[in-house]
Amino acid sequence: MNVVIIVLGFSGLFLFLIWPQIMSAKSLRKNRGKAVESLEDVVGVEVAAQSHLVLYFFGPGCGKCRAMTPRIDALIKEHSNLCKINSEEHRDWAIQLGVVGLPSIAVLRDGKLQDLSLGTVSTRKIKTMLVG
User: Fold this and answer.
1) 51 pLDDT exceeds 90?
2) In angstroms, how far is CA 102 from the centroid of its own chain?
3) What DSSP line would sit under 46-94, residue for residue?
C-alpha cells in the first residue's frame, strides 16, 4: 500500500484526495492484459449465476473492515447474493471493479458494475443494495 504525507497547502490536499485514483489507474495499466480469474472461481458457480450480486471487499489488516465484518457475516446468512472477497487474495477483481480503498461494496447486475461504495456503510444501506 502506498502512503503519501503531503503538507503543501491546497495543492497538497488536492493530490492527497486524488492519490487513490492515480494508484488505481497505475495498477490497472500494470495488470492490463493479465488473465483475471473468473467470478465463478472466486464466489462459486451457483452464486455467480445470480443476476444481482453484492460483493464486499475487505482486507485482513483493515480496521474498518474488522468493524463491518460481524454485520456482513450476519447478512450473508440471510442473503445468498452477498459475498465476502479478500482483496489481497483476489487483487485482480478489486482492480477490475475499481476498488481504491477498503472496505468497498460493489453491486453487480447481469455481470455489470452498477454501484461502488467506499468505506463503512450502514446495515440499512447494505440491505437496500441487496434487495436492489
Assistant:
1) no
2) 7
3) HHHTSSEEEEEEE-TT-HHHHHHHHHHHHHHHH-TTEEEEETTT-HHHH
Q: Do 76 and 53 meet the contact criterion of CB atoms below 8 Å apart?
A: no
Q: List the grid coordinates of 91.
A: 487483487
Q: Tell me which of 3.40.190.10, 3.30.2000.10, 3.40.30.10, 1.10.510.10 is the CATH number of domain 40-131.
A: 3.40.30.10
| pTM summary value | 0.70
Q: How far apart are CA 95 and CA 27, in angstroms?
A: 7
Q: Are 96 and 27 in contact (CB under 8 A)?
A: no
